[in-house]
Structure formats: structure tokens, C-alpha cells
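Whiteboard transcription, Tuesday session. T.W. wrote the C-alpha cells on the left side:
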């Protein structure tokens, strides 16, 4: 087996492993997004936040999701535990998909080169 065949075989194996990983991860609940937080001044005349310029309410947590992260969902004053877990899963899933995509591209390029020979 030539070195290039060896590399190709390794890449195909890695792509298969990633496919399994993606399948496993996508069976779990997941969110592709991130959490943002905000501190605010409420606008009530007699509130602490109006009297003290360094005082803000919050943090208040929001979830921003793919595709454009534009819309946010209010989560509350604490981040729900399952949301954090689902974001972690989403991140792993996104990484695995991206990695598989790159590996598959490389496999295709190498295969094309081998065919042309
Ligand atoms: Zn206030």
C-alpha cells in the first residue's frame, strides 16, 4: 500500500468515527447557540439604579441561537442547567460536523488525484 493510500484510509476511518459521534450527539437534546447577559436600568424614578449610576439590575440571561443569533430568548436571572448542557452538546456537534466536512473534502481531493494518475 502506498503512503497516500494509507493516509486516505486513515481519513476515511476518521470520517466514519465522526459520523458515529455526530449520530450519538444529535440524539441528545442540543442547542446551537450561546448565552448572553445584560445589565439594565429599569427606569423607575425612585429605584436604586436611577440614584446610583453604578447600580444596574441583573444579570439577565438570554439565549441566542443559530442561524443568525439575532433573536434572543429570555432565560431569567439564572441559566437553566439543561440549557447549559444542551449548548455544550451543540458545540461538540458543531465541531464534529465541521471536522467531518473538512475531512470529507480532503478525501475527495485525494481520491480525485488518485483517479487522475
Ligand atoms: Zn431600577
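and on the right, the sequence the group agreed on:
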Amino acid at each position: 500500500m502506498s503512503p497516500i493510500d494509507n493516509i486516505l484510509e486513515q481519513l476515511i476511518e476518521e470520517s466514519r468515527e465522526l459520523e458515529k459521534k455526530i449520530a450519538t450527539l444529535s440524539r441528545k437534546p442540543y442547542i446551537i447557540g450561546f448565552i448572553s447577559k445584560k445589565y439594565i436600568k429599569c427606569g423607575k424614578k425612585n429605584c436604586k439604579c436611577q440614584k446610583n449610576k453604578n447600580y444596574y439590575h441583573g444579570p439577565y440571561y438570554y439565549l441566542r441561537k443559530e442561524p443568525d443569533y439575532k433573536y434572543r430568548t429570555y432565560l431569567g436571572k439564572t441559566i437553566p442547567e439543561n440549557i447549559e448542557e444542551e449548548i455544550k452538546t451543540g458545540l461538540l456537534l458543531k465541531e464534529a460536523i465541521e471536522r467531518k466536512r473538512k475531512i470529507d473534502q480532503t478525501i475527495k481531493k485525494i481520491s480525485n488525484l488518485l483517479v487522475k494518475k
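Someone added at the bottom: The longest strand covers residues 57-65.
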